[in-house]
Amino acid sequence: MSSKMFPILEYVALLSVILFQLEPRIADSNNTVMKCIDEEREALLTFKQSLVDEYGVLSSWGKDNDKRDCCKWRGVRCSNKTGHVKVLNLRRSDDENSRGTVLKGTISPALLKLHDLRHLDLSNNHFGGSPLPEFIGSLSRLRYLNLSCGTSLLKVPRPFQYLSGLVYLHLENSNLFSLGSLHWLSHFSSLRHLDLSYINLTKSSDWFQVVAKLRSLKTLVLHSCALPPINPSSIWHFNLSTSIETLDLSDNNLPSSSVYPWLFNLSRNIQYLNLGFNSLQGSIPEAFQLMVSLRFLYLTSNELEGEIPKFFGKMCSLNRLCLPYNKLSGDLSEMIQNLSGGCTMNSLEGVCLEGNDITGPLPDLGGFSSLKILVLGENRLNGTIDKSLSQLLKLESLSLGRNSFTGVISETFFSNMSHLQMLYLNDNSLTLKLSHDWVPPFQLKSLSLASCKMGPHFPKWLQTQNQLISLDVSNNGISDAVPDWFWDLSIELVFLNLSNNQIRGKLPDLSFLRYDDIVIDVSSNHFCGPIPPLPSNSTFLNLSKNKFSRSITFLCSIIKNTWNFFDLSSNLLSGGLPDCWLNFDSLSILNLANNSFSGKIPDSMGFLHNIQTLSLHSNRLTGELPSSLKNCSQLRVLDLRKNALYGEIPTWIGGSLQNLIVLSLKSNNFHGNIPFQLCHLAFIRVLDLSLNNISGKIPKCFNNFSAMTREKSSNPIIGLADKIWIFPRYVYRYSYLDNVLLTWKGSEHEYKSTLGLVKCLDLSSNKLHGAIPEEIMDLVGLIALNLSRNHLTGPITPNIGQLNSLDFLDLSRNQFSRSIPSSLSQLNGLSVLDLSSNNLSGKIPLGTQLQSFNASVYAGNPELCGLPLPNKCPDEESTPLPGRNDGANTLEDEDDQFMTLGFYVGLILGFFVGFWGVCGTLMLNRSWRHGYYNFLTGMKDWLYVTAALNIAKLQKFRN
């Protein structure tokens, strides 16, 4: 559902009712009734034959004697004077969003025989992207046309100019085909309602001039049309009709300069205004107060700043104020005070300030007696939830989630909320104390109590809520079994989240869930037994981190499905992977990791053409990688680690899977060389080939890993981050973050929310030989480089200091020789280093970084010397001197006497006095500060090393 929200739908419904009332109606049974004309009845039956009506939506249309009067068929209305069909309305309402109400197929030209057709509405059905029929333009008597039904608007039919009498035109089209000039609209001088939402108007530079000429226009909806900015010169020559009452330009990325100048010229009559999802910046203009008739204002997801202006409190018609997901700030109490300073307090029914930076406690809202909607989620509100909310007797929607509220919510808080339909208290530090036999006064349709304290028992009061379509009781501390009555009432559920509890027992058959696009998350519980039948019409299924067992061969009984996300990871599943993945083409994320699956990866996985994440790690899979996987060209994450796969690394990985960001083949039995074709993986950020039997040299072309050559990453998350799930009037978020286990600092760590920032090359524990290619030093974005446990030789390149993003470097257990390059000491961010068990020699370069590591990181290199190793380098050793018993005073004895504890205390005090004396001045002069920075850094390192060596010498002689 688009962001136009329900006010537009209410307005459209109202207009539709008005138009229906203008049409002649069928007379009562006591009066003369004209039956439908035979030719038109046959035309309707021909039209029906072109449709796919799987669930009998048009079951009333038939040839039987009692069904011959087409004027009595569903959606058909005739004139009681002539018998001609005047109305054909097969619109699927938003409340009918079930799989049993959708019509599919094509639109038959048989409709041309409905010579007096005035009203045609096929909206909210799915006609498979078939082109908009040319013949529609020949229905010259049409006054109402709504074809937002999944047709493809490749071009506007040429005869559209014959529809000059149209009053209502709705061509909303989710297929985003592009239109050029909108000059064809100029013929519709009587047009009062125009909706072209989701039609790409990027090339329609004349859109403003055209719609400005439609003087009868009252409703203009151009949602998500990629509108080009308005030419400033056009603003003065073409003014939109001042009769416009409803204006929706949302989701067009329009800047403030392209909207505000002409918007306020038509402000007197406008009642509904939606400018959400654009690029409006700065504070909210005071010119909005000129809109004296304004009832609904939506400025969602812009870049508006500052506080809510006081003038909103004086807009007497304002019914709904929605400003979510901006940069608004300030104290909530002051904002509410601004709104309560005038007549708005009596008219306001909805306030939505979600996703801003609003602070403070929840103020007294008892004075807003008309308030039905209060949405304050995702701010920085704190304190307890004010009891004045229980005085809002008309409240239907309450959303306070994702704040910092604390305290206890009891059933008395809800005692007066008999109209409540939506309740979001999620992600606060709240405790719900509700008695076991509590009967709420409301019937909820949407409920989110995620991360509230509510366990250990499953809430029995939910048994009274038989209208729920979305429910989130995740992370509630529930350690109970789900009672049978819950599954009986959940048939209407579209969104169900029980995750992160300790719920036990078995899942029932879930295939009975009847709606489309179902989201189910029962992950991180103790569900056990075999996986039950699942709904084929779901979008998101997460059953991970439970105790489900046995095989998943049941998947092959699902012939048609709409799955986008399927996660069965971290269970007790076994057996082979089913070989029927050609039935799951819509999958974008498939995670079967951390189970006990065995056998080969089936060839049919190559039919997952839309797959982006395929995670099969930590199983018992064997065999070679099937070549069919090269068809999965959308793959971004391929994680096959910890299996028993073998063979050479296929060359087609680099040739066909060029969108890969993460490739992990760790802990398998791959052998042979690293194919140079892997160098085509320009987006790769994590390449883990460790713990295999790979031989040969490291390819020089690894510098083609473009993502690793950049130090910064734009997105830390890989996966579905806060995906928006929308059901009429209700919004939920669900997410899936791709994750990878990396060996880091001696142990494995899971990277999830920051995976997109990790850039890792791990080739450890193989049989690689030769030198490190100089080209690897171009990968300046690398966070981790692990080449340990191979047979690599040669010196460590002096250019290793270029890898200034490194946090982890392991070159241990190889055959590297010569000295440690001094540039290594420049890697100031290095927290893990291991150079042990090589043939390195010479002095460890001086610098606080390399001396700060434990001596073990240099062990196994007999010819290395210098701190932190105990063996000194030749230039640090002194000439042997006679013992102290011979009474001779030597220069070294004098040095020893001079280097007392007081000397070092004075040395340190002198350093800090001098250092801060100079730095205190330099802090006031930027150019001096930069000039002395390098000098002071070098001096600090020299003093540290010198002091350390002299202290060691002093202790040696005193012993």
UniProtKB/TrEMBL annotation:
GO terms for cellular component: plasma membrane. It comes from the Eukaryota. Pfam families: LRR_1 (PF00560), LRR_8 (PF13855), LRRNT_2 (PF08263). The keyword tRNA processing does not apply. Its main location: membrane. Keywords: Cell membrane, Glycoprotein, Leucine-rich repeat, Membrane, Receptor, Repeat, Signal, Transmembrane, Transmembrane helix. Residues 1-29 form the signal peptide. It is found in: Cell membrane. Belongs to the RLP family. This is Leucine-rich repeat-containing N-terminal plant-type domain-containing protein. It comes from Citrus clementina.
